[in-house]
Every structure is written in structure tokens, then in C-alpha cells.
Write the C-alpha cells for this entry.
Amino acid sequence: MIWVNIKDMKEAILYKKLNNRKVQCRVCNHYCKINPGKRGVCGVRENKNGKLYSLVYDRACAENIDPIEKKPFYHFLPGTFSLSIATVGCNFRCHNCQNWDISQNVKIAADIIGQELPPEKIVQNAIDNNCPSISYTYTEPTIFLEYALDTMKLARKAGLKNCWVSNGYMSKESLKLIFPNLDAINVDLKSSDDEFYKKYCNARLQPVLDNLMAIKKAKVHLEVTTLVIPTLNDEENNLKKIAQFIHGKLGADTPWHVSRFSGMISWKLQHLPDTPAETIRRAKEIGEGVGLKRVHLGNI
């Protein structure tokens, strides 16, 4: 891949103009209020003289062909491949992030890196490589909403499916825009504890829970993933609360992926050991114990 600095910008589609050229981004539940010359939490949406711009439109930092199960989707187009794309940036700051080089570095170094890859080319690449779907993944697709939406609309016209892999922190306004062209989504439910979200993700729990229920209500195919991290969210009570939420609010048939954490490749938790395999197997037992029918082990 060729990595280049870019100066191109596209005006954002979801923001509100405030006094003194300040703007409020309305793409995710941070609802950042951004002063002129500054960027939001994600690092890729900037206020230029009272207008909010996306700095990553048309600029992909990754494009790969992956098995759909890698997303992970186990109950949507199984056995197929998905063309996967991402841009730099993320609206979370997860200490456990394994793609921190593309999700977090943009917040330290202001340069936007990526390769020109217009929506039309993404769709054509998927068709040429016999991929029945496009996945918006690796970082958080909400932060490149304009780019994702334009691609999703073209993909739908071409008969392709659209899959998001998300932290679930998008705004209600963003959900409304993506629902007409969204076929499947895997959402990370990182913990049942709001304090975990605040300390380790720079976010809150409730918006994620609300969005999960909205996604289920919209009848979009939904799968849920929890990365089990030693000493941080591996308590049986926490795992049971997650499983009970999925069972009670999303349905017993909703797939739950419980995945093993690897400290060595994480952003800020390299001091922690890998999750023991027995912990992951216990999480599966907990999920099945509350009535979930599709609990899958990840990274085992």
C-alpha cells in the first residue's frame, strides 16, 4: 500500500453550527463541540472556519479481502469473503486496541494517511474479487460516515451486502442514515460496567446498549462481540450481565462472540497476560447458561 499525506476535505453531513464559528459534530454520541482549527475526539473531523469537514473521505488506510468469519460474522453469508476497508481514526481510545497504529496515531500526529480509493472503485474491487459483501471495519466506520454511506449506496445498487464492525457509539442520526443500506453489523459490547467504558474506552455504556436495541428493532442482522481481558472485564458477574442483556433485550438467537485478549499486540495493556483459554470456555458456559443459543469462542 502507498501511504500519502492528503489535503482533501469533504464537508460533514451531520453537524450543527454554533456561536463564534464553533460547531457540534452529530455523528456519534460524543457530540463534540469543536472550536475553529480543532478536531473532534476521533481525530479526523475538523472545524475549518465554522464548517465541519471529514479529512478521510476517499482515503482508505486499509483494503483487504477477508473471510466473513474474521469480522466476525458466523451467521451472515458464511463461507464467503468480504472486501474490507477502513480509514484512520476512531471515536474511542480503547487501551486494548489491536489496530491502534491506524485508530490512534492520527490523534498524536496530525497527518492523515491513506490511499485514494473512491467508492466506485471499492465496489468494483468487490465485484472483481467475487466478494458478495463489503465490510467497514478495522477502525470505527462511524468516523468515516460520509465515505461509508456513499460506498454503501453504490454497493446496494450493485447487489452487494454492507457489513459494519462497530463499537456501537454512533448517534441516532447516523443510525437513521445507515439503516436503509445496512445488512449486517457486529457490535463490541466491551463490558456491562460504565466505569470500564469511561476508564478504558473514553466513552459510556448506555449509548451502546440503546443502539444495540435500535439495531435489533430495525431487523438488521446483529452479532455481538466481547473481548475478555484478564482482571478488567473477565469477572463472571460481568459476563453474566452481558449475556443476560443479550438474551433479554436482543434475543436468545443473537450470536455472542467471546474472544481471547492478547496483551502483546494491544495499545496500552501490554503488561497484561493473554486471556486463559479456560476463561473463554467459562464465558461460553455462562452465555449458554442464561439461554443464549449461539455463543462462539474467538482467538482460541
Observations:
- Residues 259 and 298 are 4 Å apart (CA to CA).
- The longest helix spans residues 236-250.
